Amino acid sequence: MYSPQKARLHLSLIAACLLTANLLPTLNKLWFVSESGNYSGSPLLTALVLAGMFNRWRPARALLAALSGLHFMLLYFMVHSGGLASVRPGFYATGALHLLALGILCFSPDLNRYMHDAPARPAAR
């Protein structure tokens, strides 16, 4: 049975996962790169797409799935190109968070209906 509260809970869980994944490189730089390196996610893009999701902007769901899928594919290619020893542990943490968000996003029927039942936007004159 469809529950808008459950859909908002799923959306909040997705937001928490993705914002945590974007905050981790800032808090623990050495989990991702060596001391002299530089790594950053895309916090502004993630925040904008999440704002679109909370406003029930329909294309935001596909954009968010593409963003999480791209991050997970990056982790997959990092592991299989250089071996497990060459990948820093922070990438596994952010990969797990992105995989959890992608799973909820793709397999939550309540969230799917919540996004598709969005009120229509008024047409511009």
What topology does this entry show?
Layout: H1 4-27, H2 43-54, H3 59-82, H4 89-107, H5 109-116
Helix pairs in contact: 1-2, 1-4, 1-5, 2-3, 3-4
Descriptive overview:
With 125 residues, the chain is mainly alpha-helical. The protein has one domain. The chain has 5 helices and no strands. The chain has helices spanning 4-27, 43-54, 59-82, 89-107, 109-116. Helix 3 (59-82) runs antiparallel to helix 4. The longest helix is centred in the first third of the chain and has 24 residues, at 4-27. The chain is elongated. The termini are far apart.
**Major beta-sheet overview:** none
Overall geometry comes to elongated
Percent of residues in beta strands: under 5%
Which class best fits the helix and strand makeup?
A: mainly alpha
Mean pLDDT: 87
Q: Which value, in Å, is the CA radius of gyration? A: 16 Å
Task: Spell out the helices and strands N to C.
Answer: HHHHH
Number of helices, where a helix is a run of at least 4 consecutive DSSP H or I residues: 5
Poorly predicted ranges: none
Number of domains: 1
Distance between the termini: 38 Å
Number of strands: 0
Helix content: 55-70%
Tags for this entry?
125 residues, 0% strand, single chain, mainly alpha
At a glance:
Helices cover 70% and strands 0% of the residues.
